[in-house]
Design brief:
This protein has 3 domains: 166 residues, no CATH class; 29 residues; 78 residues, no CATH class. Helix content is 59%, strand content 13%. It contains 10 helices and 6 strands; from the N terminus they run E-E-E-E-H-H-H-E-E-H-H-H-H-H-H-H. The protein is elongated and about 105 Å long.
């Protein structure tokens, strides 16, 4: 395992969760602080197979991407690896709720459900200012309270990250960062422009096509009201453009589609005018 893939905690807290001691690590990744939780101790507390749960995490593409190893300083001389397998706090419930309560031993079900209901809140509270902690009034408030505390964790972490960046960036670095952002924005605009040129029509362009189709169908209906003309006009247009939807007409075929419909409409109007003149004679 490469050392660059191992996280070094900037803060470590030991949290009491119903007499189970859970260690939480505060780490910094790209100037962003995150909380990581070792998974094996929780498996031990719950009576779950660590090897089975590790394999389950490794099979899950989301959890696999999120997992990291955290370097800890051991206070005893028991040996063992100093790197612990951990997940971000935001992913803890994703893992916990993946454990099916109905499939575990009956004697650990209650403890598992307690972890699923409350563990995230307790661990999140440990890194929140006491004034920001919210406690549920009753069991029905549990999900709202958890959502509230999760939002506070995100807000607090984001604020700290922005402050660190503000203090650490020199004027030159800020200018470089701004230049990189502008270059990235220009690249994204170029991609959008290219997609517009070679892609499908905009809503406004599709509306122009549809407007002309409706005019042609209305003119044909005046001439022969016994049949519905919209399907026939659509079929002719789709055959002309090779598309079965206004917005799917290729951008390069937009002008030719307009010209085709305008010429068709003009021909209908000329024919009607000629017929009218003959009748008047």
């Amino acid at each position: 395992m490469s050392d660059k893939n191992i996280l070094i905690p900037v803060e470590q807290k030991l949290i009491d969760f119903y007499d189970d001691e859970i260690t939480a690590f505060l780490v910094e990744i790209d100037n962003r602080q995150q909380i990581y939780i070792p998974i094996r101790p929780i498996c031990d507390y719950l009576g779950l197979s660590w090897s089975g749960q590790r394999e389950r995490i490794n099979r899950d593409p989301i959890l696999l991407e999120a997992k990291r190893f955290v370097r800890v300083t051991r206070t005893n001389s028991g040996g063992g690896s100093p790197n612990v397998f951990a997940l971000p706090l935001d992913y803890l419930n994703g893992w916990l709720f993946g454990v099916n309560v109905s499939r575990v031993k009956e004697e650990i079900r209650e403890n598992l459900m307690r972890y699923q209901r409350e563990c995230y809140r307790v661990l999140a509270d440990a890194f929140l200012a006491p004034a920001l902690n919210v406690q549920p009034i009753n069991s029905d408030d549990q999900s709202l309270m958890q959502l509230h505390n999760m939002a506070l964790v995100i807000a607090s972490t984001t604020k700290e990250m922005l402050e660190v960046r503000r203090l650490s960036l020199s004027n030159e670095t800020r200018l470089n960062a701004a230049s990189e952002y502008i270059r990235g924005m220009n690249n994204r605009l170029n991609v959008v422009e290219q997609r517009t040129r070679v892609g499908e029509l905009t809503d406004e362009q599709a509306h122009e096509i549809q407007y002309r189709v409706n005019l042609i169908a209305e003119e044909l209906t005046v001439h022969d009201p016994s049949i519905k003309h919209h399907p026939g006009v659509h079929s002719t247009l789709w055959h002309k453009t090779g598309s079965t939807s206004y917005k799917r007409i290729p951008m390069k075929g937009y002008e030719s589609a307009l010209s085709f419909l305008d010429n068709w409409l003009e021909a209908i109007q000329r024919a009607e005018s000629s017929t009218k003149n003959k009748n008047e004679e």
